[in-house]
Fold:
Amino acid sequence: STDPLIVFTPSGKRGHFPVGTPILTAARQLGVDLDSVCGGRGICSKCQITPGLGDFAKHGVTVAADALSDWNAVEERYKSKRGLIEGRRLGCQATVQRDVVIDVPPESQVHKQVVRKRAEARDITINPSTKLCYVEVEEPDMHEPSGDLERLVLAIETEWGIENVHADLHILQALQPVLRKGDWKVTVAIHLGDEENAPRIMHIWPGYYEGTVYGIAVDLGSTTIAGHLCDLLSGEVVASSGIMNPQIRFGEDLMSRVSYGMMNAGGAQEMTQAVREGMTALITQIATEGGVDKRLIVDAVFVCNPVMHHLFLGIDPFELGQAPFALATSGSIRLRADDLGLNIHPSARVYLLPCIAGHVGADAAAVALSEAPDKSEDLVLVVDVGTNAEILLGNTEKVLACSSPTGPAFEGAQITAGQRAAPGAIERVEIDPVTKEPRFRIIGVDAWSDEDGFTAAAAASGITGICGSGIIEAIAEMRLAGLLDASGLIGSAEQTGSARSITDGRTHAYVLHDGSAHGGPRITITNPDIRAIQMAKAALYSGARLLMDKFGVDTVDRVVLAGAFGAHISPKHAMVLGMIPDAPLEKVTSAGNAAGTGARIALLNRDARLEIEQTVHRIHKVETAIEPRFQEHFVNASAIPNSADPFPILNS
Ligand code: FES
Structure:
């Protein structure tokens, strides 16, 4: 062809186009990801591109300075009024004159990638459910009568190729004044629809709308509810916030909430109302923090365990409290915000990820989406540690899942000096194996305590207790320092040679910190504390071990610790206790709140929803309660680290 060649980077897509073809037109024909909201009218500047200059030998192109057309009036006006970065052009105005290489910067791509903070499984590719479109609508005509909506829908279809667009009553109510105010030019936010729903107009603004639309991703946990408010178009997290789940007043753990519902008429409804009120409060809080109008939140994704899933939806979780633990539905759920009484845009789409099984919920599905064990070449064990541990084991061949009732000990509950992770809580512990003296760190103080277990800073801020990660480190360090035997019993002062070993009734305890001289608390680790952690870690390990049996392996290649608590556990101490299977320490990583990340992926990428629905179908569920070997593994795993499984790497 004698027509000029256009090569787009970074995609590498290329084609020949007649002289005078706008770059945006060429990009669309080649399927290059180049954004546009105004449809090529030189208003939105979403189509910005950078023409290359010079020798692009690898593309077989030499680019001359006049490869693109001169600036036209529209482009000049945009530049003088709004400014353009040096070297940038508007892709809808600049036309091709000669062979050229065109770079599409990330801001001009719809499907840009949001780089995740940690070295997590993968970046998130933005593929939003909602699109902003600027359109010019035909004015009404007495000779060809049609409604304003019909002409708007027609304009959307012709200019944007989006067919079958619907509108709710609130759009009809706003439509006529907005069209006239904008002189028949409007911007609409269109939810692109999904398997169950046609595309729908969510918002309409007169003229060109400069702003964006938002979505919310919520990890609805039994203890805390955490949400991320995201810009749906850029993928950026605008605000994050969390609240305690108000259902706690009906029971700390899930089973006590299920039984509250069984024992009290209307109990399930009360709990549904509580969690929805909590959600309303969280949304208000997060929108205020982000400075965002709640009505601009047009999409929401929720992940939660099966009991929270049912209670949030207003389904009595009774059946989940007894074998065979039948879910009302295990599939994903698509709703509207007003179905759940959420205080966001009333027609906002709500998506709940599918559940894996009666005990393995949408939160585990979200972890699977975030950590993608099904895409891992090496065998990965993913544990999401909370009151229940959700465990996934797999690789590209297959993925197995189970849950194990670890109880609340890892969160500091049932521990003498235990507390939630909050300022004042001991979170890190070291014990000198020779002197048996501890040093520790408390949350909110950026220093280790001195050898007396006390620093001026810590004293000033006040030590209040010990949190889950602190208790794990304390017990592991006690074991390493010989203060504790493999069965979990604390030695006496004579046996250990430490005055910190005290006799507490018929058993012994270790005094980690004695602040009584300063009017502070005395923090001890007692045998019942150790017993509680042994039970919790045995439940976690035996779940993982059971999946390894089913997979037919004795070792795993790597371990991912997920969950807010998982983020704070030290891999070394977890392994000393035998919480997780033996593995090289550098192969144990933390994924932070992977369930929350999974929710964010499903929010920002509409295709990820289909992906996780298919993945969940392929995950094999293992029910720990009916596996005879679970009990055996549990007993062995009660020892520190384990009475049956060797930990060769740990011991080397
Ligand atoms: Fe809007 Fe080019 S497409 S300015």
User: Anything to note?
Assistant: The chain has a mean pLDDT of 90.
